[in-house]
């Protein structure tokens, strides 16, 4: 496997982090952490199979945080010369000397640092010249535009290839880095029927270039989704069962992340305050976090503070098993750091055995939600009200597309009243789930 320039830079990035830590140690600070990330990539976008943009990016910076007791100072530099690094370290120390003391500041505890780090197979270099990415995007558009006579226009396609390197070190003696790759292809098209226009899209994303869907698959899926929305109408205001499509269901679970994150909890701005070991989902519902899946999109052996990630149950038989805590939020709450500085790691929802199509039949009469809009979610109360589009179902059969409706409820009730989770999961994000069926929500339409 050929080495890319980002891979060859990894050792020099580790040297830069080590240099910053060594200099920080001479200043009499009580702790230091240094992180650096570098990314490089190529993006090509087309519209109507003609190139619109070709963008190459290569950027990155070193960030350093120093602690003097509970006082904290941070600075950064994109210049990795020894002198520039020393200036950045000195600047962080000067800031720390003049900041207010916060007793909860400081590095994560030394005994929480990751000890065992293997290759998670996150890096697959692939030579992708602009011409190849242009061809992928154009093929996706071609497939979409020729799929159905009602596809009248394209809103563009984009092909992307990116690699990156991350290094983190701190004064506990932890220093590690790794490289990763990510490739993607998306296509957006516009359909028209009886004077009504609709647009939709689809995409593919993978660590490994060869794992991407074919451009024809992306284009055809985008066209099928767009055509299926033509003829959309409102429905009368009512209460209905709701089936969230998999890519919308990930957002439904995303609200859970915010509610159980340390920052929301110590600010007392979460609708799941003091909810550990309480039932918030049905007793069959489970979410497992799997940080060490090889090749997955959200895998890591340690978080952004060097804390080891571990496999754990987030939800076990409907009960909340853990909060998501950094070193700071754990200290504020008097709890244990869970290694979630920087995000979550491959949440996988358990399922109830049905496919998405089987859940449509089980729902009988209700609304499939394929898109939500707006920001109508209150993290403090859990109140949920968002614009939605999708499909009306009667007798287990899709009848017609629906648009310009609002679905409303409260997340506590919505979570408790989940009826089923489909087994055909969407694997394109850090939350891996199938469609989620709720027994009932308010639907505001005509």
TrEMBL record:
Residues 32-96 form the Metalloprotease TldD/E N-terminal domain. Residues 238-445 form the Metalloprotease TldD/E C-terminal domain. SUPFAM superfamilies: Putative modulator of DNA gyrase, PmbA/TldD. Transmembrane segments: none annotated. Belongs to the peptidase U62 family. NCBIfam families: PRK11040.1. This is Peptidase PMbA. The lineage of its organism: Bacteria, Pseudomonadati, Pseudomonadota, Gammaproteobacteria, Alteromonadales.
């Amino acid at each position: 496997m050929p080495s890319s320039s980002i891979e060859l830079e990894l050792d020099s990035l580790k040297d830069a982090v080590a240099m910053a830590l060594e200099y920080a140690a001479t200043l009499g600070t009580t702790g230091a952490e240094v992180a650096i990330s570098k990314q490089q990539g190529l993006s090509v976008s087309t519209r109507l199979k003609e190139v619109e943009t070709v963008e190459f990016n290569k950027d990155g910076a070193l960030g350093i945080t120093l602690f003097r007791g509970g006082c904290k100072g941070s600075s950064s530099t994109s210049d990795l010369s020894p002198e520039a690094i020393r200036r950045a370290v000195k600047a962080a120390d000067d800031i720390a000397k003049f900041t207010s003391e916060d007793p909860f500041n400081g590095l994560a505890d030394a005994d929480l640092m990751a000890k065992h780090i293997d290759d998670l197979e996150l890096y697959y270099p692939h030579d992708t010249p602009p011409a190849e990415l242009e061809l992928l995007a154009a093929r996706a558009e071609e497939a979409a535009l020729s799929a159905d006579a009602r596809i009248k226009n394209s809103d563009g396609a984009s092909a992307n290839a990116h690699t990156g390197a991350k290094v983190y070190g701190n004064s506990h003696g932890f220093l590690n880095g790794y490289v990763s790759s990510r490739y993607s292809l998306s296509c957006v098209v516009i359909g028209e029927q009886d004077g009504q226009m609709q647009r939709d899209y689809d995409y593919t994303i993978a660590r490994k270039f060869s794992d991407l869907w074919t451009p024809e698959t992306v284009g055809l899926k985008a066209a099928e989704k767009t055509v299926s929305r033509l003829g959309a109408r409102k429905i009368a205001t009512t209460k209905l069962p709701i089936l969230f499509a998999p890519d919308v269901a990930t957002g439904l679970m995303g609200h859970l992340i915010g509610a159980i994150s340390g920052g929301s909890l110590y600010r007392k701005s979460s609708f799941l305050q003091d909810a550990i070991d309480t039932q918030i989902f049905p007793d069959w519902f489970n979410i497992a976090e799997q940080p060490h899946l090889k090749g997955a999109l959200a895998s890591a052996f340690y978080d952004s503070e060097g804390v080891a990630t571990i496999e754990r149950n987030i939800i076990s038989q409907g009960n909340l098993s853990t909060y998501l805590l950094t070193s700071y939020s754990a200290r504020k709450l008097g709890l244990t750091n869970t290694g979630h500085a920087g995000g979550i790691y491959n949440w996988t929802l358990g399922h109830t055995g049905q496919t998405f199509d089987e859940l449509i039949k089980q729902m009988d009469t209700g609304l499939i939600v394929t898109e939500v809009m707006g920001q109508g979610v209150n993290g403090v109360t859990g109140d949920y009200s968002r614009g939605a589009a999708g499909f009306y179902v009667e007798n287990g059969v899709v009848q017609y597309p629906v648009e310009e409706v609002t679905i409303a409820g409260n997340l506590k009730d919505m979570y408790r009243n989940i009826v089923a989770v489909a087994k055909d999961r969407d694997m394109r994000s850090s939350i891996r789930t199938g469609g989620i069926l709720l027994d009932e929500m308010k639907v505001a339409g005509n």
